[in-house]
Amino acid sequence: MRHTIASTLRSPTRTLLLAAAACLLGAATAHADITFARRGNLETQVIITGKFPNTDYRIYHSNLPSGGGGYTRTGHIIRTGPDNGSPTGSGSITIRHSDSEPVRAGHHLQLGDANNPNAPNDQHPSGVPIEFPAPDPRSPVVPGANPPEPIVLRQAMQAPGVMVIETWDPGTVYQLVLDPAEASWINAGCAVSGTGDLQVQLLQCTAQNIVFQIMSEPTMFPPNDVVITGVGVQVQGQPCGPGVGLRLGFTGTSSVFLNGQFQTQIVGNGVFDLTRLPVSGPADVGRQGGVAGRDGRYDNNDFIAFIDMFFAENPGADRGAQGGVPGMDGQFDNNDFIVFIDQFFAGANC
Fold first, then answer.
1. Least enclosed by CB within 10 Å: which of 25, 134, 263, 317?
2. By residue range, what is the domain housing residue 210?
């Protein structure tokens, strides 16, 4: 097998390539006044710190994912302590997915002055992403049939010094719902279980719905998760589309605790947006740390993973033919890099 570049370039060149990939599209994370914005199964918890005491701050929500399309003022207001019982200059809010103004996964939030709604937003940087409990329920999908992998609904949303828990109340029924125009479930031995002492029963597993009921949860510390296995996803969409919407049906109750303190009880009967599974393109080959895998993002990790694949002569790196056109030619050379870079920017510019 011919190895035009990899056989002639020595390890220092590979090191330089990896260093360049690590810097590509890199960005520093700036301080933000919204210190916690996590989306749970039934609600989103937002926490702010370092603000003026006993002051109202309004939440602004980006019109498009990743902070695009500008920001719209919402009706949600966070009051800072100490007169609300929170530490001085800090505050939190629980925004339910069933709210008339829900916040959406993948979009960004920023703060504004609630006492003067026409004042410029005082949040810096421009916005803070609404994150889903890591890792995501399942990895990104590709067009067509995606093999089964575990789908995890996490009980806790965590960050340093913060733990938000939604209880799994006995008798409550949940369902994971797909839109048939976007995708359908592939039943390959569908099963559901709980971690720890959580007991769950599968009620139904069809092309559009996975339905289960909570039987018991004697303790919620450490947090318990629901794990669904034996289910693949048949995707109708294409890369660069809006992704596959994953909705959560909920009939019953759940209590929300912030660092062990009761916040509110959610009582509901409906189906709400949970998150969207990205539909990945061919250049989405790297995850955090440059390890191989899809994460629905286009960044330096994809370059690092591709470079490792290339020097290992992994067939996945053979994607360019003579002239830098897409195709497998059994050679590992500059054409593979040309095609990968084209695929990368096609995905990144979606």
1. 134
2. 144-277
118 and 219 inside one domain? no
Query: Residue 331 in contact with residue 2, Cβ under 8 Å?
Result: yes
Q: How is residue 217 written in tokens?
A: 């949860």
Contact between 202 and 229 (Cβ < 8 Å): no
Pairing outcome for strands 244-258 and 261-277: antiparallel
- First-residue to last-residue Cα distance in the chain: 35
Query: Are 99 and 160 within one domain?
Result: no
Q: Domain tally for the chain?
A: 2
DSSP state, residue 65: G
CA distances for 178 relative to 236, 248, 264, angstroms: 11, 9, 29
Tens of pLDDT, residue by residue over 231-255, are 999 999 777 777 899 999 999 999 9
Tokens 């971690």 locate to 195
Task: Tell me how far CA of residue 19 lies from CA of 13, 15, 23, 301, in angstroms.
Answer: 10, 6, 6, 11
161 and 269 both lie in a single domain: yes
Q: How many CB atoms lie within 10 A of CB 170?
A: 14
Structural domain contains residue 217 = yes
